[in-house]
Amino acid sequence: MFVFVYFSVWILCREITMIHGSKLACPEKSSMVNKLKLLCDELDIGKESGDRSTASGFSVSLSRAKYVVKGHIVRFDKVWSNIGNDYNPQSGVYTSPKNGVYHFSCTVMSAGKKAIRVSLWKNNLKTVTSYSYHHYSGTLNLVLHLKKGDKVCIKQDYHENYIHSEPKFNYSMFSGFLIS
Q1: Cys bridge to 132: 59, 106, 110, 153, which one at CB 3.0-4.6 A?
Q2: Taking Cα atoms as reference points, which of 62, 64, 102, 71 lies closest to residue 86?
């Protein structure tokens, strides 16, 4: 329901942005348009998104198979992109630069006939979990509301085991980005 309302307001705001310079004949409509303009400004809707300083996103993978102890953070070391430098490859932790809605995804491949289970953590809270076995891949996806400074990471959640990856194929990866 929230998504429907949000996109409905977004469409209205885009329309208002298009007629921003024109005069409206009806004072009631003009008042409503002004109220919607204020709402659009509060939600940052209808503005050009050319300001890269507010952008944040990353895509990282494992450069090779990695042995990870249960409860430890998976440090994805091959950085494909790190817009805003909010992902730290040394720690494996993403730190949100501002309040907002974010999307995260992670895919890991198990090694051999072993099982692997990883979870996405927001601060000290386990959110969703992915499981794979016998060279299959497990994937997780999640949209989260984060506050500035919140930490997000992937932790190995099932015995000590290998996460499979190869330099040429990058089977195991972690990505996230700011939606709004």
Answers
A1: 110
A2: 102
